[in-house]
Design brief:
With 104 residues, the chain is of the alpha+beta class. The protein is built from 3 helices and 4 strands, in the order βαβββαα. The mean pLDDT is 75.
Length: 104
């Protein structure tokens, strides 16, 4: 099974990164294929409204998209929250997944 890890926190040495990295290490030790991305390495822009629907920007999401959509049936996002809000990058990322998928 392929396991995709995406760190939405801004620090590569923060708690979120550590949690995802440890999870990925466990998956690798169990024999799974793992892929790890840090959203802070990519510029992911919000979708814009156009006259015929949403406008999908050319951004870092294009590289992540094939990995994400190959896992949609098993996708399980986990993110820490601050003040009842997820990180800005995680919010943009999750909304982009929703509108790029067939479920929108």
């Amino acid at each position: 099974m392929k396991v995709l890890g995406i760190v939405a926190g801004p620090r590569k040495t923060g708690h979120t990164a550590t949690l995802v990295e440890e999870t990925m290490e466990g998956a690798k030790e169990a024999g799974h294929e793992t892929v790890l991305y840090y959203l802070s390495d990519y510029e992911i822009k919000p979708l814009e409204a156009g006259k015929d629907g949403y406008v999908y920007p050319e951004d870092g999401f294009q590289e992540l998209m094939p990995h994400i959509f190959s896992l949609i049936p098993t996708l399980s996002p986990i993110t820490p929250t601050q003040f009842s809000e997820g990180r800005r990058g995680a919010r943009i990322y999750s909304k982009t997944i929703y509108f790029h998928s067939d479920i929108a």
